[in-house]
Amino acid sequence: MIVSASTRCFEDLSLEDACARLLDLEYSSVEITLNEDSTQVKPSEVAADLESAIARCHNPMRLNVTAYDINITAEGDEYYEQFTACVKLAKATKVVTVTVPSAELGTPFNEEVERLRRLVAIAAMEGVRVGMKSQIGRLTQDIDTVAVLCDNVQGLGLTLDPSHYIVGPHQGRAIDKIIKYVFHVHLRDTSPDQLQVRVGQGEIEYTKLVHQLEKVRYSRALSVDMPKSPEVDHMVEMRKIRLLLESAL
Question: For helices 76-92 and 109-124, what crossing angle results, to 10°?
């Protein structure tokens, strides 16, 4: 396993400046967020000029790219066109895993299964795997639903964010049941009543999580996904969690 960090940790900066910050903090790997609302790289920009996106995302600031976190706001055919471009970007930059959000709560189960099957099929054509993101307010907030979706969509995995199973409506449930589906990991520290707290003040058991992942032979990235918080020295927290994760490996 390796320690990585998402560009979302510095979402107010450009891609290049965010990567420079991570390099200053001695991270060697990065997860790039492709978000239509960001100032970094937008899925619509990837679709409009794939070659330019490849040039920007290929080892930015000498950092190894571990994954892409894709958030597309377009609908209908345009949604799938942008997703196709994003997985082509992943293949071109030698990235195996992309993350997408699952559908919002209330979405018919069969409808979501069909959407995910289509995404997995598109990604598989480029040798890329799709992981749904653990997320409160979406179908993946429930561990049982994660298992059922992964079992119904061949080739689908999970981008595990344990914070969303510590806070929220399903807090306190063991995640052992879904470890075998994990394709990627997002991390911060979390308390039962706050999604993000200072590193060391929450309930994420990093060493235990590493051991759980080792049992299923997970060998990829642990990606820090920790946006800035008011009244907290973000650089200190980013350095602290890197050191903590490295010591757990």
Answer: 40
| pLDDT value, residue 170 | 79
> Is 2-248 assigned to CATH 3.20.20.150?
yes
Positions of the chain with pLDDT under 50? none
pLDDT at 169: 84
Tokens of 193: 């009543």
Hey, what are 236's tokens? 């200190």
pTM of the model: 0.94
Domain ranges of the chain: 2-248
Give me the pLDDT at residue 172, please: 78
According to the model, what pLDDT value does residue 59 have? Answer: 87
Contact by Cβ (8 Å): 149, 103:
no
